[in-house]
Amino acid sequence: MRWLRAITARLRGSGVQERSYSGSQGEGSRRTALYDFHRDHGGKMVDFAGWSLPVQYKDSHVSSHLHTRLHCSLFDVSHMLQTRIHGKDRIAFIESLVVGDIAELKPNQGSLSLFTNDGGGIIDDLIVNNTSDGYLYVVSNAGCAEKDSAHMQNKLQEFRGRDVALEPVDCALLALQGPATADVLQAGLSDDLSKLTFMTGVTTSVFGISGCRVTRCGYTGEDGVEISVPANRVVELADRFLQNGEVKLAGLAARDSLRLEAGLCLYGNDIDETTSPVEATLVWTIGKRRRTAMDFPGASIIVPQIKGKVTRKRVGLTSTGPPARQHTPILNLEGRIIGEVTSGCPSPSLRVNVAMGYVEPEYAKTGTALRLDVRKKMVDGATCKMPFLPSKYYSIK
Prior knowledge:
Elements: H1 2-12, E1 16-18, E2 30-31, H2 35-40, E3 44-48, E4 51-56, H3 61-70, E5 72-76, E6 81-86, H4 90-95, E7 109-116, E8 122-130, E9 135-140, H5 145-158, E10 165-168, E11 171-177, H6 181-186, E12 201-206, E13 209-215, E14 224-230, H7 234-242, E15 247-249, H8 252-261, H9 288-293, H10 299-307, E16 313-319, E17 329-331, E18 337-346, E19 353-359, E20 369-374, E21 377-384
Parallel strand pairs: 2-4, 5-15
Antiparallel strand pairs: 1-3, 3-4, 5-11, 6-9, 6-10, 7-8, 8-9, 11-14, 12-13, 13-14, 16-19, 16-21, 17-18, 17-20, 18-19, 20-21
């Protein structure tokens, strides 16, 4: 239970509030189409971004985490905001909001991008997919859903008279993650999954369920897919996956520690509207054409930072002793505070403490020795290259 309390505490810092493990519905929380399914399978439910979701099941958080790394886990991510953008001006529309070069995406190719504000801060991170079906398929964070929807609707007013329209996607979303993903999913596809590389997708049938959007991506660092599936068929699909002995259910706790080992940001912890892409070491999301044109929100602030200076940089950290959590002060060896931890936990895979945070640029070099003030106790730490574990995203060799 110590692991669960620690993970839940970190999630609470990102808008998660723990509820009774009896699964009683929290006031104001929404239910995914898998809510009863989670309860029936022993899910311990918490409020997350206004949704009732399982933090874990009967297996411990560590067991669930390691099962994902070794086999395959199924996550309910239906709380994420899914949007289709239609019309011949859809690319111009989305590029007026994000930093990526969406025009260069090939059919059925996607990319991580960022909504930015005029001050150079990150409104949210999102995945933009250029489908071969004539629309953009966008997935963004549940905790920013209302903000993101309003942001896109406001921009739509500026495009009045142009050919662009927004369509909310009323589908469930499953994430199948781990090295066994390809074998598990291929049994339900007529398409050849080996042709679907990381950050590409296809609209297809999965185990006879039509109208599914399968994207090879995920939030764990492992090979995996996210499947947008009609909500009235999602229980059927989840049950079908669980018939394979390689697959187990996993919840928010495992998802959080897996993404941290993979060096992936959690919005609200590691990035927010006060963080620029350069500070967050996410410059790679900014298309070269977009940098030259400087035609995205906040470009006048962000682009000069790329070759200039910032006051802080996101880094990976390892440490000894008790693990560093969010808001833990980071100090240099002389005892001066030089930054702050944004996410941290004991790594189930590496059996060491891992974290990420922001430090002054001169301390960002990999291997720099630091100290962390963990509950008034100084522990030794050092900057570390991320991801902490090598990523295993699928590509054709």
